[in-house]
Design brief:
Layout (H helix, E strand, L loop, with lengths): L3 H6 L3 H5 L2 H18 L8 H11 L1 H10 L9 H15 L20 H18 L5 H24 L7 H24 L11 H13 L4 H26 L7 E9 L5 E2 L6 E2 L5 E10 L4 E15 L2 E17 L4 E8 L5 E12 L13 E9 L1
Parallel strand pairs: 3-9
Antiparallel strand pairs: 1-2, 1-4, 4-7, 5-6, 5-8, 8-9
């Protein structure tokens, strides 16, 4: 059986030399990248769980660790009061004269008493000015800075050729976090060991073990069990919500695009006038938001229609083309279609009919799931 020390030795040497909190930051960052890019893991709830920590906490924590490598302690009122009392006792009535000043003379300059009084006054001043970042402040600042840092990274990426996409965002946030971890490790090692910030996880584990397995009385034991059950229920609820998210509205996007001379796809510049035998390139887009993989069929018809009293009647219809597409949930399929009219006429309607599965024997706009159309004149 492999013990804990042997498992620790399996990690790379640079990672073992890192402080525990920075090593955990690196490990969680790498695991997040694995849940994003590994084909099997990116379909599991682990992607959401690690992704939330990766975006909302790790960048800010690494940045704070780089800024404040020292172990800070917050100033308390007791500390300030004790330091003030110590300074008052050491200086006596020198700074607050009373009627008993004759009985308590001031220390003679250059003596030990005068040096002790000066040290006490300096200690009081240091206590009044002493500040630092304790654990609670680090956690709060980590969340706040992460919420600020990640959008800034996205803003910078928006002005680069990569844009705001999954791969650039994940890589940039991971790179920022790892760079901050490297700076934090270097600055922390440069400090004396007694001044370095460290997470007291061993003390937390020991205290938790004592509360769970060595309670002082039955009331403490019951409260500990209740706390563990509450935490497990909370984690189970969050896990279920992540694994089985509520379904939103089910729909399918169906649209037509044209391509500019620069190769950009736009919802504009559709053909209006064509000559017989001329062709036009269009892109048919299908976006699946049905929460399941769906098979679609697109039927393209050229129709001669008559419009009277806001009512359109199809006088003649000719099928130009049809094609199938199977699209996974939350995915988009684009099919390049060559429009080639087969007859001439004015105000001809080119209608694109979308069906789920196999279309009926006589496809029409009334029995289609979605429909698009263009008006063209063919000379």
């Amino acid at each position: 059986m492999v013990d804990r020390r042997d498992a620790w030795l399996l990690l790379p040497a640079p990672l073992r030399r890192l402080p525990a909190d920075l090593a955990a930051t690196v490990i969680v960052t790498l695991l997040t990248l694995a849940t994003v890019f590994v084909p099997v893991l990116n379909q599991t709830p682990l992607r959401v769980a690690f992704g939330l920590v990766f975006v909302l906490f790790l960048p800010g924590y690494a940045f704070i660790a780089a800024l404040f490598p020292e172990a800070g302690t917050a100033v308390t009122d007791e500390d300030s009061s004790a330091a003030a009392e110590q300074a008052a006792d050491a200086t006596g009535a020198a700074s607050h004269p009373t009627a008993d000043d004759d009985a308590k003379p001031r220390p003679v300059p250059g003596t030990d008493a005068a040096e002790n009084a000066a040290d006490a006054e300096a200690g009081a001043g240091a206590a009044s000015n002493r500040s630092g970042i304790d654990g609670i402040e680090r956690v709060a600042l980590s969340f706040g800075l992460s919420i600020a840092i990640v959008p800034l990274i996205g803003l910078v990426l928006n002005f680069t050729p990569w844009g705001i996409r999954l791969v650039p965002i994940a890589t940039a946030v991971a790179g920022f976090t790892l760079v901050c971890v490297a700076i934090a490790a270097q600055r922390r090692v440069a400090l004396p060991e007694s001044e370095q910030f460290a997470v007291p996880y061993r003390a937390w584990l020991a205290a938790g073990r004592r509360e769970l397995f060595e309670p002082d009385d039955r009331v403490d034991a019951a409260l500990s069990v209740l706390l563990v059950v509450s935490v497990l229920l909370a984690l189970g609820s969050v896990g279920y919500a992540v694994a089985v998210p509520p379904q939103g509205e089910q729909f399918t996007e169906f649209y037509l695009l044209s391509e500019t001379s620069e190769g950009e796809l736009v919802a504009d510049d559709y053909p209006e006038t064509m000559t017989e035998g001329e062709t036009a390139e269009l892109i048919v887009g299908i976006g699946n938001n049905e929460y399941e993989t769906t098979s679609y069929t697109v039927v393209v018809q050229l129709q001669t229609v008559e419009t009277t009293n806001n009512s359109t009647t199809v006088l003649e219809r000719t099928e130009l083309n049809r094609f199938d597409a199977t699209v996974a949930h939350n995915e988009t399929h684009r099919e390049r279609h060559t429009l080639r009219p087969t007859r001439t006429g004015e105000n001809l309607r080119v209608q694109y009919l979308l069906y789920e599965g196999t279309p009926p024997s006589e496809p029409t706009g009334e029995n289609a799931y979605r429909e698009l159309h263009l008006w063209i004149d063919v000379e």
